[in-house]
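Chapter review: from sequence to fold.
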Amino acid sequence: MRTQSSPPARTSRLFLSAIVASSLCAPALAFDGTAPLIIWSGRRFDASSPPTVLRHENLHTVIDNVGCPHVNVVFNQLDLHASDLPRLSSSLENLRSSVNDAKSSIQIPYLANAASAPSSVVQSLKAVCKEAGQTDIVVAKIGADGSLPKIVPGRHYILKATFKRFREAGIGNGEEDAMANSDRFVGKVMSEVDAITKDWAAFYTSTGPFKPAAMHRRAEPSGSAQQIFTDPYSKRSLFQKYVFFSDGLFMCIASTIPLVIIGIIGVRVLMSVQSPTRFEQPKKEK
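The token string follows.
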């Protein structure tokens, strides 16, 4: 006699498999809304076991570990993701050199809530300094030429610098050149800070990517020779206006499709299991 799963049972198994496979999309898409965070300092702090993913509410703990140095520099590279750092490493020589020469440094690839990462760093620095009894805190912007405001003893400084979106410079050499310009700015600023005081800390993070969702508006093309679009934005087609696939969504699809195929094959194999239809006759005693 052959036994088979009833149609409701088959549907429930397939539905469960689909839920398990689709649940893999959440972690992949979550990384779209993160930004890298690199911290290095001229003073020593506990840099052991940095987290790979840092929740927004735990940022204060990391900043508290760094303390409240005399000068704090916060660099904000717009629209930078942790996955961009390896391919742009050749354009970040000054950043790499400054981090390697620091007495302490930590690198956190994924800081949640990237939309407010730099402002969260500034707020956490102010809170840590106030907890340390330092109430005279100056928050100022670094000049476009890399010039610093006047640094005086007794005050604590939080200096901010924001770089343009490097993706607008064009794919390939355009992005690398834009990052190289930002990197030269970082090298100049850190050289001046280190010449003024050895009690400093630097933070390199990003505002972006803009949305953790899969669809976001394309940036306007720059005035390079290799412009992708020449029509005004209002006259472009839907697929020219928006990006429908992000890095996280692509990773989700690439990892889900094989698992769905394996799951379907496994369910089909289990459904093909049959009970025996013939039984061995007991031996008769002579």
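Two observations follow directly from the output. The chain has a mean pLDDT of 79. The longest helix spans residues 247-271.
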